[in-house]
Amino acid sequence: MDFVGLFSGPNVKFILQGFLLTLEVGIWSIVISTIAGIIFGILRYTRIPVISQAAATIIDLIRNLPLLLIIYFLFLVLKPLGFDVDLKWSAIIGLSIFEGAMIAEVVRSGLKSVDKGQIEAARSSGLNYIQTLWHIILPQGLRRMIPPLVSQYISLMKDTSLAVIISLPELTHSAQIAGAQNQSFVVPALLFAAFLYFAVNYSMSLIARKLEVRTQ
């Protein structure tokens, strides 16, 4: 294992460029999937039969598909349909669709965890369903969602490595290319990539713990 050779200036720069792209893809996917997840989670939670059932069907369909298949499918299908989407956005859209479905279930579970007595008290005090949802159910549900949401975000950041199938030059792809220069570079390159993934995900878990303590 040649750590000295791998950690020359050009190699480190190349891997860090992949790391920055991983962060960009991950952050965009977190934002988009969270918005989509909250919307579909609320729709799934509502007691409007048609809307709730439609949301449940979409969520279940996506959750039971492999993420790798979704990313690869979008990569192959979007451009022939006339959408000029680059590799980065193919990955972001695929991750957002899959993780949005996962987050929707987290949101629905969080909303369902709110005590029914508080909901009934809010309705009896004159609040309508939307006001009860906005002022009573969502604030309490969101606090309880923090741990599972962060766990999902950590999974999302790790899942960005699946974009290697469409040759997106993210962290895993960059580590593979750097390691391919020399057989003695393979293990150091992968260890460096593993350290970067760990640093990001562990930092997210620490932030989640602080947020959880503050919201208790």
From TrEMBL:
<dbReference type="InterPro" id="IPR010065">
    <property type="entry name" value="AA_ABC_transptr_permease_3TM"/>
</dbReference>
<feature type="transmembrane region" description="Helical">
    <location>
        <begin position="185"/>
        <end position="204"/>
    </location>
</feature>
<keyword id="KW-1133">Transmembrane helix</keyword>
<dbReference type="InterPro" id="IPR035906">
    <property type="entry name" value="MetI-like_sf"/>
</dbReference>
<feature type="transmembrane region" description="Helical">
    <location>
        <begin position="20"/>
        <end position="43"/>
    </location>
</feature>
<dbReference type="Pfam" id="PF00528">
    <property type="entry name" value="BPD_transp_1"/>
</dbReference>
<protein>
    <submittedName>
        <fullName>Amino acid ABC transporter permease</fullName>
    </submittedName>
</protein>
<dbReference type="InterPro" id="IPR000515">
    <property type="entry name" value="MetI-like"/>
</dbReference>
<keyword id="KW-0812">Transmembrane</keyword>
<feature type="transmembrane region" description="Helical">
    <location>
        <begin position="64"/>
        <end position="83"/>
    </location>
</feature>
<keyword id="KW-0472">Membrane</keyword>
<comment type="similarity">
    <text>Belongs to the binding-protein-dependent transport system permease family.</text>
</comment>
<dbReference type="InterPro" id="IPR043429">
    <property type="entry name" value="ArtM/GltK/GlnP/TcyL/YhdX-like"/>
</dbReference>
<feature type="domain" description="ABC transmembrane type-1">
    <location>
        <begin position="19"/>
        <end position="208"/>
    </location>
</feature>
<keyword id="KW-0813">Transport</keyword>
<keyword id="KW-1003">Cell membrane</keyword>
